[in-house]
Amino acid sequence: MAENDEACERPVPTSHKCTVAAAAKGGTDESPPSTTAPANGGAKKTHLYNPTSRPTYRPRLNYCCWTILIILILILLAAITGTVLYVLYRPHRPSFTLASFRIHRLNLTTSADSASSHLSTLFNLTISSKNPNAYLSFSYDPFTVSCVSSDGDVFLGNGTLPAFFSGSKSETTFRGVAVATSSDVDAETMNGLRPELKKKKGFLLKVEMDTRVMVKMGSLKSKKVGIRVTCDGIKGIVPKGKSPAVANVFGAKCGVDLRIKIWRWTF
Q1: Phi and psi at residue 76, in whole multiples of 5°?
Q2: Which of 68, 102, 172, 258 supports an S-S bond with 124, CB 3.0-4.6 Å?
């Protein structure tokens, strides 16, 4: 024990006093952390933030924010303008009417050996188009007119309607629109059409008209879009003799399948 006391009394560096005593006593459970002097004369190394060590993105972020804000403002202005135009002009679709439907010829003949059948038709139509809008006008390309049976969608003939311009609050009527065909038909078509033609109360017909239309509103113009007009509910009969048969069109209704987009609204 004397030796240990003398060892502690020797002048040793402060950082080693307890270490020497602990080694003489056989060690302790906790040892104080050792310090090592820096090699550069004791100067401590500090870590300073260097603002130039990484690029800054604040200007670009601000630019993106302004761009997004401008786009949102433009979208809002476009929506407001479209709403105002819709309220002021109140756009409506054009309407079509099938005024008359005359059947001049409707013959379905079969050869003697029943190997082939022939269909010969001739129809005469009167069609009207009305534009109910006060500030919109429609420019139509030529129409393709087709006639089919409503029950079996059997093709009965086709024709054309000339291109025309429909101004605001105007009505255009076409008379003498010819729809006809002279073609061979297969056995399936013949078997589906013949029972319809023999009905005493008449058979149902359907007229389909396809074209492209452009809408103009002041200085604004739409792109040309496809349009289909379907007139259903026509009840026809087979003519007898040389006189044409007049189909019943009182229950016929013409629907317009049209999707036109001007500015921000569609009708």
Answers
A1: -65, -45
A2: 102
Mean pLDDT, residues 168-184 taken together: 95
- Tokens for 229, please give them: 């007009």
Q: How far is CA 211 from CA 139, 159, 198, in A?
A: 10, 13, 34
Helix %, strand %, coil % for the chain, to 5? 25, 40, 35
**Is the pLDDT reported for residue 29 higher than 70?**
no
Confidence band (pLDDT; 50, 70, 90) for 111?
confident
**How large is the greatest C-alpha to C-alpha distance in the chain, in angstroms?**
150
CA 47 to CA 59: how far, in whole Å? 27
Question: Taking the CB of residue 24, how many other CB atoms lie within 10 A of it?
Answer: 14
Per-residue HEC secondary structure of 83-117 comes to: HHHHHHHCCCCCEEEEEEEEEEEEEEEECCCCCCE
Query: Taking phi first (over 0 means left), then psi (-120 to 50 degrees means alpha), and beta for anything else, what does residue 172 get?
Result: beta
Token pair of 237, please? 């009969």
Backbone angles phi and psi of 229, in degrees to 5: -110, 125
What is the sign, positive or negative, of the torsion defined by CA atoms of 32, 36, 41, 43? negative
Q: CA distances (Å), 82 to each of 44, 77, 86, in order?
A: 70, 9, 6
Nearest to 218 by CA among 263, 254, 176, 253: 263
Pairing of strands 137-140, 164-166: antiparallel
Side-chain-facing half-sphere of 53: CA atoms under 13 Å:
5
Distance CA 49, CA 56 (A): 14
Q: How far apart are CA 26 and CA 3, in angstroms?
A: 14
